[in-house]
Amino acid sequence: MTPKTAEPGVHQAKVTSKGQVTIPKAVRDRLNLQEGSILNFIEEGETVILQPQRRARRSFHEAIGTLDPEGMTADEYVSSLRHGPGDREALQSGGGGPKRVVRISDLLMGREQL
User: Could you give all domains of the chain from N- to C-terminal order, each with its CATH number?
Assistant: First the structure.
């Protein structure tokens, strides 16, 4: 059980022999911490700040902004990520019927959606 303090927003936890502490449930809930969450320990003199590490999310445009989209379809780009050069030739020679082709440049311009 976590000891309570009189000060609002101040929580206590006891350090185990292995150097572990249990983060109080109120703090876990407020910060949406779950099993596997990563915390940064920021030292400022005698004070240590625990800060949840948040993943930076990039937009679709930022993620593919380094590509040269001219002439490459989205299917061709994804295929190039999944398969080696020899695999691509075998895949392109197969049947499969008509497919909708979406060019990356059209996605970037907002003219097409996947």
Answer: 1-55 (2.10.260.10), 60-109 (no CATH)
